[in-house]
Amino acid sequence: MRVLLCNKFYYRRGGDCIYSINLEKMLSAHGHETAFFAMDSPETIETEWRRFFPPEVSLTGVKSKLNYASRCLGDSDVRNNFSNLLIFFKPDIVHLNNIHSQLSPIIAEVAHKRGVKVVWTLHDYKLLCPRYDCLKRGQTPCGDCLSSKMGVLWHSCMKNSFVASCVAFAEALKWNRKVLERNTDMFICPSQFMKDMMLKGGFAESKLTHLCNSIDVSACEIDDYDNRSDYYCYVGRLSHEKGISTLLEAASRLPYKLIVVGGGPLEGGFPQLHNVEFVGYKDWSVIKEIVGRAKFTVIPSEWYENNPLSVIEALCIGTPVLGARIGGIPELIDEGRTGLCFESGNVQMLTDRIKEMYEDSFDYKSIAESSKRRFNQEAYYERLMDLYKR
């Protein structure tokens, strides 16, 4: 089978990029022919398909912002380059990932018109929310745009700017539900929560399938699952919607050591706490060591997380997860066996749950073994092939 994968970035930048690159490797390992379509940027992984990549767009300067607005609506660079790649590669399937704005759904439209089947894995809520994360002004969970995209204008949700919100509103009108459904054969929802949100947004159930993400579980092997140190950890972006402020408030009330891994807009803006160690951004080898020695990891998100890889990776390492009961997080946790959940944003409940996790005992090796069976790529591959063949 010939599969053309599409994602706005072709380097390990975020969860959508990691998923897309891993999917490419998985398909190639099973003998399928693959190609990739993305923006060209300095960090882009070298590939024979790079000559088809449209130039990167930015938001620096008036001209760049105009180019960005044009790109959101489907400009000629993307349409022509993608058309040329379709003609050259002749795919059986086009598998879309995170494409809005910098590439835009014009590529789904082009593929559909040429009779190529289109599958789309949803990594965020952009098809439902012009801001992509269902956060009102980036602060509180919101569902206004499920019924009317005017919400992005009412609240100036995009970058707290009315002009940027107008561009997002125009993009939502251009690539509305009817257009997206017409040009896409199947939307893959990594969480049941995502599928339920898509249904609330009016998408046809016949166009939706739930397929939880997978990872390369071999990268999660550690020498001794029971060799745990006296700390718990957080791995992720240091930003408001990730709930890091709530976690630090809870940590300040407790004697236990917390290790915080990651960077972001709030980096350096927190008061120093005697039991909290900020170690900054780290690569996977260091993250695996920290998570693999932790008693548990905390995912305190305050937005509708879809299917966070940080939970899946921790469980495959054998580390229990204390997760906020929001979005797709609770679907990944078997409470009492692989971790616990707490009410998102509730500092007191989070404090109490951290105490419980410290006092509880977990079978770390059993968590790792069952999670690897659940999230391994072979199981994912079989279900994806069923979908492709359908």
Give your account of this protein's structure.
- With 390 residues, the chain is an alpha/beta fold.
- It has two domains: 2-216 and 376-389, 3-Layer(aba) Sandwich (Rossmann fold); 217-375, Rossmann fold (3-Layer(aba) Sandwich), CATH 3.40.50.2000.
- It is 39% helix and 14% strand.
- The protein has 15 helices and 14 strands.
- A six-stranded parallel β-sheet has the order 2-1-3-4-7-8, with helices on both faces. A three-stranded parallel β-sheet has the order 9-10-11, sandwiched between helices.
- Strand 7, helix 8 and strand 8 form a beta-alpha-beta unit.
- The protein is globular and about 60 Å long.
- 45% of the residues are buried.
